[in-house]
Write a structure and sequence with these properties.
Layout: H1 4-16, H2 37-50, H3 55-73, H4 77-113
């Protein structure tokens, strides 16, 4: 069995996780920005980034377990290892995306609670 497709899939999955974190993207504001906007943004960004939620790790472990079980169902140890690897990688990427969304939501809500008209 050749492992090239597996390595390609893992590389493609990892590449999909690359990019600018949503917390660092510009905020959409309705109206003018107040003089305290940038200081509040820095504080809220730090607060949002401190939230980890262990989402990516949990999703990766779940994906690895499911992938391993599905691979084992085929009756092959190699398939179980490949399934666990792919499931873990895909689960990790999905968990990271969920974490990024949660952190962005925390940033927006923090800015809104400080009186800024942030839409997203």
């Amino acid at each position: 069995m050749t492992l090239k497709p597996v390595f390609f899939a893992l590389f493609a999955t990892a590449l999909a996780a690359c990019g600018e974190p949503p917390v660092q993207r510009a905020l959409v504001v309705d109206g003018t920005r107040t003089p305290t906007f940038e200081a509040d943004r820095q504080h809220c960004s730090k607060l949002a980034m401190s939230y980890d939620g262990k989402t990516a790790r949990d999703e990766a472990l779940t994906g690895a377990a499911i992938g391993g079980l599905l691979g084992l169902a085929t009756g092959s140890t190699d398939s179980a290892l490949i399934g666990a690897g792919l499931g873990g990688a895909i689960g990790g990427v999905e968990g990271n995306a969920t974490l990024n969304d949660t952190q962005r939501d925390l940033l927006v809500r923090c800015m809104q609670n400080r009186g800024h008209n942030v839409l997203g």
